[in-house]
Amino acid sequence: MALTTAELLEELFAAAGRPLDSTRREQFLVYLRELQRWNCHLNLTSITDEAGIIRKHFLGSLDFLQAFTPHPGLPLLDIGTGAGFPGLPLKLWHPELAVDLVESSQRKSVFLRQLCHALGLKDVRCLPTRAEALAADSALQAHYAVIVSRGVGRLRRWLPAALALLQPDGRMVLEKGPEALAEVQALASFIAAHGGVVAACISIPGESAVPRTLVVIAKSTGSQKV
Length: 226
Prior knowledge:
This protein is an alpha/beta fold. It has a single domain, classed as 3-Layer(aba) Sandwich (Rossmann fold). 40% of the residues lie in helices and 21% in strands. A 7-stranded mixed sheet has the order 3-2-1-4-5-7-6, sandwiched between helices. Strand 6 and strand 7 (212-219) form a beta hairpin. Helix 2 (22-39) runs antiparallel to helix 5. The longest helix is centred in the N-terminal third of the chain and has 18 residues, at 22-39. The protein is globular.
C-alpha cells in the first residue's frame, strides 16, 4: 500500500535524522500542498514528485544548519529564495529565527506572502527586491547574522551587497556544486576586495548524482581562508 503524503514526510525526515513533531508535520504538509498548487501556473520548481520535493527542497534546505547555529531572534536573510528555499524550511525548523526572504519576482513574492500566511508564521518578511537595493538601506547594513542562498546566480553581481548586509561576525552560506572549491578560489581576490574571505567548504553527503557543497564566506576580520 502506498504511503500517504504525511507518512512519506515522516519517513523521509526520520531517515534523515530529523523526526517530525505534529506541528512541523502539518506545516510541511501545508508547504508541500501549496507548492504543488501554485506550481501548476507559476514555475516554482522543476521537481514535482513529493519525495523529490521533500528530499531536495525541504531536507536540502535544512542541510544549511551544518554551517551555523540558530538562536532566538537571529536575523537571517535568504537571497533569491524563489519558492522559499532554504529560508522557509529553516524557519519552520527553528521558528525563533527572524527571517527575511528576498525574491525579485513579484509573482513569486505573492506566493511567498500567501504561503507564510497559510503557515501562520511570525517574524518573517517577503521582500520583492534585490540584494543590491536592500544594501542601499542604511538600517539594514551590517544587520544580518546569517545570509543564505541556493539560487546563487552571478555571485559577482550581488556578493558586494550581501557582504555589506552582513554583521561583522556574521557568515554567508551558499550552496554550490561539485566544482565549489575551484570556483571560490578563482573568486578569492574578488571576495577579499569586498571585505570577505572563504572560511569553509562543507561537503553534503546524499543520494544526488551531483555532489553539493556549502561555501561559507565571512567578513575578513578573524577569518581564515580555505
